[in-house]
Design goal:
CATH class: Alpha Beta
Shape: globular
Low-confidence stretches: none
CATH topology: Rossmann fold
Structural class: alpha/beta
Strand content: 15-25%
CATH architecture: 3-Layer(aba) Sandwich
Number of strands: 7
Bound molecules: iron/sulfur cluster
Strand order of the largest sheet: 2-1-3-5-7
Largest sheet: 5 strands, parallel
Number of domains: 1
Radius of gyration: 15 Å
């Protein structure tokens, strides 16, 4: 995302999101349980921070993911879903498992970015323990390196139905 596109989106807020259309079909059968509200805890398991920038943009003023019912929270105990970015480094295996176990059930895991899906460019790295699905069960994957904010928002809308 360029500075120019951010400025354009702030001046003309609809330019960034007016083509999103209806929410996509639910990727998993959890819409009824969520009731249109999705609380997310984010864990960076070893990302280059590219995915973090796009997540921050998705929740920023231009894209405003909160209007679709998705919200980032500070504690896994308040979260419906865990958003994980990056390959899982050896140092992050324990913290990722602990974060997942701290979440109330039913709980979901969303692997955001190609590194989270299959280790991406970091595959085979000496510090990499594996993809997210090698450590915790993954319910949804968001492809891209990094995924664009629109793609992240569409995935979340598939869960909230808004
Ligand atoms: S998917 Fe791309 S942007 Fe995201 S952590 Fe991996 S290398 Fe970085």
């Amino acid at each position: 995302m360029t500075i120019r596109s951010v400025l354009q989106a702030m001046i003309h807020p609809h330019t960034a999101t007016n083509d999103l259309g209806a929410p996509p079909a639910a990727a998993v059968g959890v819409r009824h349980t969520l009731g249109g509200s999705l609380q997310l805890r984010h864990v960076d398991a070893g990302s280059c921070n590219g995915c973090e920038l796009e997540i921050a943009s998705a929740f920023g003023p231009a894209y405003d993911a909160e209007r679709f019912g998705a919200r980032l929270v500070a504690s896994p105990r308040h979260a419906d879903a865990l958003v994980v970015t990056g390959p899982v480094t050896k140092n992050m295996v324990g913290p990722l498992k602990k974060t997942f176990e701290a979440m109330p059930e039913p709980r979901m895991v969303i692997a955001v970015g190609d590194c989270a899906r299959d280790c991406g460019v970091f595959k085979g790295g000496y510090g990499v323990a594996g993809a997210v699905a090698d450590i915790v069960p993954v319910d949804m994957q968001v492809p891209g390196c990094p995924p664009r904010p629109e793609v992240i928002i569409q995935a979340l809308r598939g869960l909230t139905g808004r």
